[in-house]
Design brief:
This protein is an alpha+beta fold. It is 42% helix and 18% strand. Helix 2 crosses helix 7, helix 5 packs across helix 9 and helix 9 crosses helix 10.
């Protein structure tokens, strides 16, 4: 089957109105760019210059020139956040995800396509196998997922890296080779080189990706069970997650996934708790105990298990009233006159703030949850506490874009 046809069978491509293309200038992303242009997809490309190599700026400009010849609008984003500490590749990946998602939302795009290939699936499988990953870690990359408020598509997962480069050669298209792809300090590079020896054992990229695909089918079956459990046993109450006592009757794997997703959502964290911590949590819950985990409080009440934010995790968090607070709350209220040099900001209520809300008991919300709930402050003065019966015209809403993955599983 021609590569263009296989590309167009990728998830969501025929449905999107406007598509973003993440184009680094490497072979995979340049193939993505040319295939999208040939298919006539309404697209806009972006290149992120991480500022880590002197050649990167010139490469980004060259990508722009290629895009201009193809009639594809192109933008360059720059990241200057590397301070020489920590995991460079992980920090660069996180920054790239954040920058591109902000760019895509600003450009009113429906989704962003990435150039991951079948080889990336195989390499990721081996890297995670070495770390002892479970089904989720070993399963093939999701062809579509939502993160940072944007839909991400991977239409090239069924195509090999060398196939794409052969297609580029046929078209007379050049691409850039990142020298970091030869740096053995990175796990992926070592895995990529080791795979050359595995191919003789029948463990080439195609076979490894096939196994990862089988595990993706297992993941999908578990997700279906998870969806049904969430639909029938879970609801959200003003930012807390409530689970009916029947969750303890679920198979361990489904309960583990449900707890991880709920805690991740309440904490607005990129990742949920790890396996050992979840195992201890499940043991305590089955003994009728509550505990704190991942910045959340998990407590048994008469109506079941309540998972809420822990005040200690947000006590020092502040944000302008127009910004997202604690990764998921947006506060909306009436226009305010600028009568002070102290701007409005969002902070957790804490004990001091809750003491100024005499009607909070009528909310039927636990005191611990309200302590960690957002309030509108001007310096030391509390103007509004929407969840603690002191709204003063303000409302607090959980942001649906960042948290849609967990909320989409619930029926109410």
């Amino acid at each position: 089957m021609p590569i263009l046809e296989r590309f167009l069978r990728g998830p969501g491509l025929r449905e999107v109105r406007a598509l973003g293309l993440a184009v680094s200038g490497g072979g995979d992303s340049m193939a993505l760019l040319h295939l999208a242009a040939e298919a006539g997809i309404a697209a806009r490309a972006v290149t992120v210059d991480h500022g880590l190599r002197p050649e990167a700026a010139a490469e980004a400009l060259e990508v722009g020139r290629v895009c201009a010849r193809l009639g594809v609008p192109h933008d360059i984003l720059r990241w200057e956040g590397w301070d020489g500490r920590g995991n460079l590749m992980d920090q660069a990946r996180r920054a790239r995800l954040r920058l591109v998602s902000e760019w895509a939302r600003g450009a009113d795009l429906d989704a962003v396509a990435l150039g991951h290939t079948r080889d990336d699936v195989a390499e990721t499988f081996l890297m995670r196998l070495a770390r002892g990953a479970g089904v989720d870690g070993l399963a093939a990359m999701r062809a579509e997922r939502r993160a940072e408020g944007m839909l991400w598509l991977r239409p090239l997962l069924g195509i090999g890296r060398e196939e794409l480069r052969e297609e580029l050669r046929r078209r007379g298209v050049a691409w850039f080779e990142d020298p970091s792809n030869e740096n053995r300090a990175f796990d992926r590079v070592r895995v990529r080189q080791a795979m050359q020896g595995l191919a003789g054992l029948g463990l080439g990229p195609e076979r490894l990706a096939e196994v990862a695909g089988h595990l993706a089918e297992v993941r999908a079956a578990l997700d279906a069970q998870l969806h049904e459990a969430a639909r029938t046993l879970v609801r959200v109450d003003r930012g807390d997650v409530l689970m009916a006592p029947g969750v303890l009757d679920l198979p361990d794997e489904i309960l583990r996934r449900l707890l991880r997703g709920a805690v991740q959502w309440v904490a607005s964290a990129e990742y949920g708790p790890r396996g050992p911590a979840l195992a201890r949590l499940m043991r305590d819950l089955r003994q009728g105990k509550g505990r704190t985990l991942h910045g959340c409080r998990l407590v048994w009440r008469r109506d079941g298990l309540r998972i809420g934010r822990e005040w200690q995790a947000v006590r020092d968090l502040t944000a302008p009233v127009e910004a997202l607070w604690d990764g998921r709350w947006r506060l909306q209220g009436p226009p305010q006159e600028d009568i002070s040099d102290q701007p409005l900001e969002v902070r957790a209520l804490g004990a001091d703030g809750l003491d100024r809300c005499p009607g909070w008991r009528a909310t039927n919300m636990p005191r611990a949850s309200l302590l960690a709930s957002p309030g509108v402050w001007r310096g030391p003065d509390l103007l509004a506490a929407p969840l603690a019966a002191r709204p003063n015209g303000w409302v607090a809403l959980t942001d649906p874009l960042r948290n849609g993955d967990f909320l989409s599983r619930l029926s109410h």
